[in-house]
Amino acid sequence: MPLLSAVMRLGARMPLAVLHFLGAGFGWLVYGLSPTYRRRCRENLLISGLCADDGIFRGTLHAAVAETGKSITELCRVWFGADEEIDRIVRCDEWAVVDAALSAGKGLIFLTPHLGCFEISALYGARRLPLTILYRPPKRAGLEALMQAGRQRAQAKLAPANLQGVRLLIKALRRGEAIGVLPDQAPGVGEGKWVDFFGRPAYTMTLVSRLQESTGAAVVMAFAERLPRGTGYRLHLERVTANPFDSAALDRAVERVVGRCPAQYLWGYNRYKVPAGAEPPPAAAT
């Protein structure tokens, strides 16, 4: 994808405010052109129960459409901007949470849901500590080199979502290092269980609970809130202390953090899909 790479590197020279302005328009374009995406956004937000009335629902939906578009165009600056710029555009007042979590020497699991700018959360952390990030290779092979170039910077390393990648995660935790996982990414068959997510069964990964149980690693929820008018991001960090830390606790933790900033969640993500080969949830099977 040489052309796409060239376009993104050119876009990295644009002010973040311009990229966000363009992204908002792009978000509405996709929303208008895709009936499936439009229906999924509306349904997922509606069933979440986060909107008290129709007015709040419409306002949150409209904001979410624009914010989703921003999450695409901002990648130009996030992936291909200067490394030192990350510290300038990201504000974090809670890094002591990370230091405390690492002090036990058993490693740290960062959970970064599809909320805000989850890409910059990882890069901010990788400028401060070794960070191994679980990722799913894109379906279009040509995009993988671009993704790796944008994500594998500073002390960040990528681990593919397969057995080899899981081994890399375990090794990092046993060295007392940090790893990053998207906790609301739909896993493949045999890698999850059906758990309610915002009142509806969602196939939820068991990997995080298995990693935490086998290593004793601390768990921290992280999300970078997108600030208005392209002024940057605020990174929020919160220790997750659920015991036991199972798939249900994972979904509850994601629900809580999404509830803090629902307009910046990717409501168009197909969170409730049935993975190929998996049994549907009991309610869907009857």
Give a brief description.
The protein has 286 residues and is α/β, with parallel strands linked by helices.
Tell me what the structure shows.
This protein has a seven-stranded mixed β-sheet, with helices on both faces. Strands 6-7 form a two-stranded antiparallel ribbon. It has helices at residues 2-11, 16-33, 35-48, 54-73, 75-80, 85-89, 96-102, 118-126, 144-151, 163-174, 207-215, 247-260, 282-285; strands at 90-91, 108-111, 131-135, 156-160, 178-181, 192-197, 200-205, 218-226, 233-240. It has a single domain, classed as Glycerol-3-phosphate (1)-acyltransferase, CATH 3.40.1130. The chain contains 13 helices and nine strands. With 286 residues, it is α/β, with parallel strands linked by helices.
What name is given to the CATH topology? Answer: Glycerol-3-phosphate (1)-acyltransferase
Query: What's the story with the biggest beta sheet?
Result: 7 strands, mixed
The helix/strand class is alpha/beta
Number of helices: 13
Spatial extent as radius of gyration:
18 Å
Looking at the overall shape, the CATH architecture is 3-Layer(aba) Sandwich
Strand order within the widest beta sheet: 1-9-8-2-5-3-4
Strand content: 15-25%
Number of domains: 1
Overall strand count = 9
Shape: globular
Mean pLDDT: 94
The CATH class name reads: Alpha Beta
**H/E series, N to C?**
HHHHHHEHEHEHEHEEEHEEHH
Detail the poorly predicted runs.
none
Keyword list:
alpha/beta, Glycerol-3-phosphate (1)-acyltransferase, 7-stranded mixed beta sheet, two-stranded antiparallel ribbon, 13 helices, globular
Topology at a glance:
Elements: H1 2-11, H2 16-33, H3 35-48, H4 54-73, H5 75-80, H6 85-89, E1 90-91, H7 96-102, E2 108-111, H8 118-126, E3 131-135, H9 144-151, E4 156-160, H10 163-174, E5 178-181, E6 192-197, E7 200-205, H11 207-215, E8 218-226, E9 233-240, H12 247-260, H13 282-285
Parallel strand pairs: 1-9, 2-5, 2-8, 3-4, 3-5
Antiparallel strand pairs: 6-7, 8-9
